Structure formats: C-alpha cells, structure tokens
Amino acid sequence: MENLADFKKFVQSRPELSEAVKNQEYTWQGIYEMYALYGPDHAIWQDFKGKSVNSAGGGLDIASLLNLVRNLDLDALASALSGLEKVLGIVLSVMDTKEEAPSSQPLGSISRYDD
Question: Which of 19, 41, 52, 83 has a CB 3.0–4.6 Å from the CB of 59, allowing a cystine?
C-alpha cells in the first residue's frame, strides 16, 4: 500500500483535485488510476486544472487524447488487463460449475411392503 500513501500525499499537495471531485468532474477512482498509470510528475497534471475528464469523454480534444495514448504506461495497462482476465476466468469457471450441477431427478415409483 506504499503507492496509496504516495497518492494521498500527492492529493494533499494539489487541492484542485479535491475541488474537481467535489464538482463531480472527476472521481477519486479515476484520479487514482491516472496517478497509477502516469505517475505524479507527468504533464497530464498540468492540464488537469482546466479540463474535465468524465466517462462520456467531454472536455477532451483530439490532441489531449493522442497525448494520453502516447504517454500511456503499457506495462501498467497490461498488468491491469491481466488481473481483469483472471477475475473473468474465475467468474466463468464458477458459472460453468453451476451449469454442470446435476438437476434433480424424479423419484421412481414408491412401493409399499405391506404384504
């Protein structure tokens, strides 16, 4: 959790991040993911004050988007995708075992031994 402690120090040094979350321009999860991918010294934080990055992509122009893609940490992205792949594999294996469970069989005729 050393990375989380570093992130907390980073956020404390940049009050505009808290304001952006309060204004619902960003989420803490989104900011943390950007921090994990780009690090604290990346140029993205210089552009952070004036631009809004939300799930619909509003506020991003093509140049900013290309800059983000160009500076993306592919190792971190591959690691995140690998973790997601493992989780999906586990979910699928659990779902497969539920489908393979034998269905209840109807009972045969019940005979009485009253002879």
Answer: 52
